[in-house]
Each structure stands twice: as structure tokens, then as C-alpha cells.
Design a protein that fits this description.
Rossmann fold; 11 helices
Length: 352
């Protein structure tokens, strides 16, 4: 006995055996990706996470024979303790997860609700992390098993960098390599200069500062080695453009917004000026009222909740600063979700 059954392309298939395995209803997947988070703050959880992160050749491109003995020996013997202590300061104890995980879940829930209202059950929304859990391969496999024959992959990095956007794409492509039946895929480009992204940033500034113009707004971006810029990475230029566009949208005069870089690691020269040094220099020059925003981060995380509001704020106040205002990341702000949904819709063109 045979029966007719639609295949994953949605077209009427030729007759199949009655005992042929059932195929899921064809879907389009929207896969949101962020950097990642440790599963817990204990030594071994931190070591697993840091080992995966710092073993990524996109992040640290030294030869393995030179880097891995140093990483697996000295660095991963000590750093999990200090990183774990920093994570404990910001950990969401109620949910037993990092704030990045909590916020990412909230963002994805909002996107899922919007997608369901627009496209019903034809679209599946999920998220993955480049490092840690849920892993990119596990989520891609789940989406394929659920019937996703096409996937839009959206790394939540406004500015492109080989160490972030490209690394996330690499892992997505590696996950596709394991699939017998690969879905068609699209990767979403960076959105550092989109008008709706800049507007969402500007509105967050206006809301946090209640309309006032501070003596200085420090736009602090995650850093990277200067060498990467010289080797062709566009990240530095895209950060500078985001700051320029934000200033124009706010209508502020030149010199109010400073672009700086944080999270320096290792002995190489990184993009300058360094945020922690720059805010101290501002205070020493008599600029004792500043605000700080992090346009490279789509969600508040260890770099914003602990580094900026801890180490960087302390450097400012120690040097004589008085008023330090941190402007939260866009997180699950409706304007941010609106922008992401528009971006997703553009990249679904022709698919739905």
C-alpha cells in the first residue's frame, strides 16, 4: 500500500510506501546567535568555556604549538578563578544563569511572538551561542529535525569582526557540514549603520539622560589587536561610523562623543584609546560627569555589567570623576526588537 505525502519542499511528492518515515512540515528557521556564556561560575565550568573561547583561531590566531601550552597551562590554571569571581558579581541567581543568557532568552521570546503573529507556524525561531550552550551544532540539528529547510542565521553583532561575526558564521557552516540534508541558508550582514539601529541607540541615550547633553559620552566598544585592523578587519572603521552616526542623530556638537575600546587581553597593542585609561584621563582633565554606552553589545553581559560598571567606573572615580552614568545595551527594548524584526524580514525576502 502507498500513500501520497508532501516532501520538505512543500511540493506534492510521488507515492511512497505506507511505512515511509513521516516528514515534518516544512519550516523556515530564524537562528539568533550570540557570543556565549559559561554554564556556571565554578572552576571547571569556567575552564571549559574559556578553553573553547580562547582556542578559537578567529580570536587568538597564534600557532597552536605556541598558544595551546600557554593556554592550557598557565592561563587556564588561574583565569577560571578570577573570571568565575567576576561572573558571581553579576550572576542571575534566581534563574541560575548569566545575564547574557537571561536577556538573549527575552530577546528571542519577543522575536518569536512577533514572528508567530506574522507568519504562524511556518517559521521557527531559536538561538545558539558560539561558545558554551546551547551550542550552534545542537540547535542547527534541532531545527533541521523540526523541518527547517531554510535558515536565516543572525549573529547579534552590529559591527563586523572576524573574531565575532565570522567566527559565528564559521560555526554555523561547520554545523551544516554534519547534516545529511542541508537546509538552504542565509547569513545576516552587520547592521552598524542602519538608521533604525542608530535611532534605537539614540533613543536609549535620550531616555537614560532625560534629554540632557553630558560633557562627554564615551562609546566603548570591545577591543581587538591593532594588527587585525592592519590585516583588513573592518571592525574599527565600523565602530567609528556608528559613533559618528549616533552623534548626528542626537544632534550633538563635535567632541561630545569619544570612541574607545575595552577588554584588552595579552601583550599585543590593541585598538586605542583604551576605555579604562581614557575615562581616568577625562577625570584628570576636569571632565567629572560622563556617560558610557556600549554600541557593540546587543545585550548586557560581563563586559558591561562587571567591566564597565566595575573596573572602568572605578578608574574614573579614583581619578576624580563624580558622575558616571552607564546607558544599558538595547537588550529587549521594543525599538531593538523592531529593528531586528525588520532586518529578519529583509533577509526572508523571497522565502516567505
Amino acid at each position: 500500500m502507498t500513500t501520497r505525502q508532501d516532501d520538505r519542499s512543500g511540493q506534492d511528492a510521488s507515492p511512497r510506501l505506507a511505512d515511509h518515515p513521516a516528514l515534518p512540515q516544512p519550516k523556515i528557521g530564524i537562528l539568533i546567535a550570540n557570543l556565549g556564556t559559561p554554564d556556571a561560575t565554578d572552576y571547571w565550568s569556567m575552564r571549559r568555556y574559556l578553553s573553547e573561547f580562547l582556542s578559537d583561531k578567529r580570536v587568538i590566531d597564534y600557532p597552536a604549538w605556541k598558544w595551546q601550552p600557554l593556554l592550557q597551562g598557565i592561563i587556564l590554571t588561574k583565569r577560571p578563578f578570577t573570571s568565575g569571581a567576576n561572573y558571581k558579581l553579576i550572576w542571575n541567581n534566581e534563574a541560575d544563569e548569566s545575564p547574557l543568557m537571561t536577556i538573549t532568552k527575552s530577546q528571542v521570546a519577543a522575536i518569536s511572538d512577533r514572528a508567530r503573529a506574522l507568519w504562524g507556524d511556518r517559521v521557527m525561531v531559536d538561538f545558539c551561542m558560539r561558545y558554551g550552550n546551547p551550542s550552534t551544532p545542537a540547535v542547527v540539528d534541532r531545527m533541521v529535525r523540526a523541518g527547517c529547510e531554510r535558515i536565516v542565521f543572525l549573529p547579534l553583532y552590529p559591527q563586523y569582526s572576524g573574531s565575532t561575526t565570522a567566527s559565528a558564521n564559521d560555526q554555523f557552516f561547520r554545523a551544516l557540514m554534519t547534516q545529511k540534508w542541508q537546509p538552504a541558508s542565509r547569513t545576516v550582514p552587520p547592521y552598524f549603520d542602519r538608521a533604525d539601529y542608530i535611532d534605537a541607540l539614540a533613543r536609549s541615550v535620550e531616555r537614560a539622560l532625560q534629554g540632557r547633553v553630558p560633557p562627554r559620552l564615551v562609546a566603548s566598544y570591545h577591543g581587538m589587536p591593532e594588527r587585525y585592523l592592519k590585516e583588513g578587519d573592518p571592525y574599527h572603521c565600523q565602530c567609528q561610523k556608528t559613533s559618528r552616526l549616533l552623534q548626528a542623530r542626537l544632534g550633538w556638537p563635535d567632541g561630545v562623543i569619544d570612541t574607545t575600546f575595552q577588554s584588552v587581553f595579552g601583550s599585543e597593542e590593541w585598538l586605542k584609546p583604551y576605555t579604562v585609561k581614557h575615562v581616568a584621563e577625562l577625570a584628570q582633565r576636569g571632565i567629572t560627569d560622563i556617560a558610557v554606552i556600549s554600541p557593540a553589545f546587543s545585550a548586557d553581559c560581563i563586559e558591561t555589567l562587571e567591566e564597565i560598571q566595575g573596573e572602568i567606573q572605578e578608574a574614573f572615580t579614583h581619578a576624580g570623576g563624580r558622575n558616571f552614568t552607564y546607558i544599558p545595551c538595547l537588550n529587549d527594548d521594543p525599538a531593538h526588537i523592531d529593528m531586528l524584526m525588520t532586518l529578519i524580514g529583509e533577509n526572508l525576502a523571497g522565502w516567505i
